[in-house]
Design goal:
- By secondary structure, the protein is an alpha/beta fold.
- Helices cover 39% and strands 22% of the residues.
- The protein has helices spanning 11-25, 47-52, 57-60, 64-71, 130-133, 140-166, 182-193; strands at 2-7, 30-36, 40-41, 62-63, 74-77, 80-84, 89-92, 95-96, 102-104, 107-110, 113-116.
- A 4-stranded parallel beta sheet has the order 5-2-1-11. Strands 6-7-10 form a 3-stranded antiparallel beta sheet, with no helix packed on it. The chain has a two-stranded antiparallel sheet with strand order 3-4.
- α1 packs parallel to α4 (64-71) and α6 (140-166) crosses α7.
- It is elongated.
- It starts with a strand and ends with a helix.
Length: 194
């Protein structure tokens, strides 16, 4: 049977695995496999909502194993670490749990057709100062980290306001009442922590 291996379960890779699984996997024409280093998918444009605290990632994540079961493809947990085009094999690194214990060993996956859909990263186009003034939002982990930093910064600012009010200060911190861009939130975080 023809083996189709898709590396990367982002918007493109997941959509393709779902479509090919429904079209070819269901009829037994091809074996469709999706490899991703995460267990769940979250649509990248929603990361700013997690960062601002207006969305819980857990309610919007799609479980790869469940999607694979419903749409006739196989999900494999792992990260591509090498490729042998001559042998048509993909090297996959080991997976360890939170305690560092092995879940899966290093292994190779054979394929007839390989599709690499690993996505992209945000480009700052070399804008001077942008690396210092932005917080990356490339994954749910980074968005959750930013959200924690934001909340901590707002709590610090609120604590300063309370202390200032008790001692009759005239200057007060300003906290935005509506969502703002991640770059403005990053600046607010830096100001509140200084």
């Amino acid at each position: 049977m023809h083996k189709i291996l898709i590396v990367g379960g982002g918007a493109a890779g997941l959509e393709l695995a779902t479509h090919l699984g429904d079209r070819y996997g269901k009829r037994g024409v091809a074996q469709v496999e999706l490899l991703d280093r995460s267990r769940t998918h979250l649509w990248k444009p929603q990361l700013h909502e997690i960062a601002s605290g207006s969305m819980d990632a857990g309610t919007h994540e799609l479980d790869y194993a469940a999607q694979a079961r419903r749409h006739h493809f196989r999900y494999r947990l792992g990260e591509m670490i090498g490729l042998d085009r001559t042998k048509r094999e993909l090297a996959v690194g080991p997976i360890v749990d939170v305690d560092g214990k092995p879940v899966t060993p290093s292994r190779t996956l054979a394929y007839d057709t390989l599709i690499i859909a690993i996505g992209s990263l945000t480009n700052d186009f070399g804008t001077p100062g942008s690396s210092r003034m932005r917080s990356p939002l490339e994954s749910p982990v980074e968005a959750a980290r930013f959200q924690r930093l934001l909340v901590d910064a707002l709590v610090r600012a609120q604590t300063r306001q309370s202390r200032c009010a008790r001692s009759n200060c005239t200057s007060r911190s300003s906290v935005p009442a509506r969502p703002v861009s991640s770059s403005r939130l990053s600046c607010a975080t830096r100001l509140a922590t200084s």
